Amino acid sequence: TTGVGTASCTYTWTAASDQNLTVALGGSFTGETKAPIRVQKGLTVTGGLGLRSETTEFSDGVDTTFEATSDRIEPALQATATGLPEGLHIERVEGSTEANPKWKVAGTVAGPPDTYNASITIADDNVKTDTATFPMRITVGREKATVSMTSPGRVQKDEKVTLTARVTQETDDSLGNLALATVTFGDGTALCADVPVVVDPEGVGTATCDWTADVDRAIRLEVNGPFTGKSAVTATVWTPKGIDVAGGLGERTATTQYSDGVTTSFEASSDRPSASLSATASGLPDGLRIESNGGTSASPTWQVVGVVDDAPGTYDATVTVVDTNHPTDTASFRLTITVQAEHAKVSYDGPTEVPEGESVLLTAKVTQEGDNQPGDLEKFATVSFGDDPAHCQDVPVEVDEATGIGTATCEWTADQARTLALTVGGR
User: Fold this and answer.
1) How far is CA 311 from CA 287, 340, 364, 381, in A?
2) Fewer CB within 10 Å of terminal CB in the chain, N or C?
């Protein structure tokens, strides 16, 4: 009817690979064609069947997928898993095709932190011999949490206190059951071990530990169970020591000059609750006093203020710090202040040639060195005139109020040539 001829051949052939079949005409005709014959390989897992390793934390998921292909006609590939952590399962990725399906590990871990050795099996429901299995190792770590101490920071010795830890999860998309966590309170040895966490409606957990204050302790809080907060917070709970003077209670020294100040300051602190420290000093040179210089009531600083209005010499003062809210708590140290004479400049302003036997008035001019803290030159300075012995000893200085220049005079009857030494004394 159509003029098309057919020829057929039945041949049993075990193919290992794709072939190109040659079909050739014989007899009184000639012609040839190539016919490709494809060998179906069946199921292939993309990436092979080697071990796949994943890491996650308690309450979190696993971000991993896998896929397979099949060149069978109308394949029906399915994936199953054994040994996954509780809360995880295999789920088909939406939009993947039957010939090239993709799966993911879905859910969040509800099982304890551990290493899980799971097996993933992919099978073709239409070809029972088409199966493939590969291992998947999932390491589940502990979920990160933040722990802090909300109990009193300072307690008296032998006082019974309740230490309270506040526990929160780090914010992510998969929060775990914080009630599975525990907290250990300790400082090398556990004061309270594995205390259960109680969670409020806001999702904040607390754990408490009753402790009788015995010695100074650095209380460390460690979150256990499926959560970790081991290094999150260190809280210190300790017995107050009272006043602590910075630098200790050893002797302190300072040197100054008459009419000048002292650049000396000191500080102290107290770890007692409601501490209020004040400082007093006895034995200071006239003109100096202790004055507050900032800080807080529990950690103030002081400085020695004023200018010396006292004679040169060594002054042994005592500084005492007291806690006004705990009057028995005091600390004292020695402050030795050496006061030197104020530097002054003296010049001769009298005659240098005198007839023998004549009575003359020798004159000295006295000025202070400029240091912005002048002393009372008229009240506390003297001048001695002489070469040996002195002709005039400790002559008072009179000061010109307008110029601030002091003058001292000495009457002398010229007997012989002399080199006069002018010496300022007093302060």
Assistant:
1) 11, 8, 23, 11
2) N
The residue assigned the tokens 């072939």 is 19
What is the topology classification, in CATH, of domain 243-340? Immunoglobulin-like (2.60.40)
Percent pLDDT > 70 in the chain is 95
CA 312 to each of CA 255, 284, 315, 338, 372: distance values in angstroms, whole numbers, following the listed order: 11, 12, 9, 8, 19
pLDDT in tens, 102-157: 999 999 999 999 999 999 999 999 998 899 999 999 999 999 898 888 656 667 77
Q: Which CATH number fits domain 43-141: 2.60.40.640, 2.115.10.20, 1.10.510.10, 2.60.40.10?
A: 2.60.40.10
Tokens 């006061």 — which residue?
339
Q: Contact at 8 Å (CB) between 80 and 133? A: no
Beta bridge partners of 206: 166, 198
Cβ neighbours of residue 346 closer than 8 Å, sequence gap 6 or more:
364, 365, 366, 383, 422, 423, 424
Burial of 301 (0-12, 13-18, 19+ CB in 10 A): middle
Q: What b/e string do you get for 308-330 counting C-beta neighbours within 10 Å, with b at 16 or more? A: bebebeebebebebbbeebeebe
Residue 64 corresponds to which tokens in the numbers above?
A: 């991993």
The predicted-structure confidence for 243-283, as pLDDT tens digits, reads as follows: 999 999 999 999 998 988 999 999 999 988 789 999 999 99
Q: Which of 298, 303, 314 is nearest to 281 (CA)?
A: 303
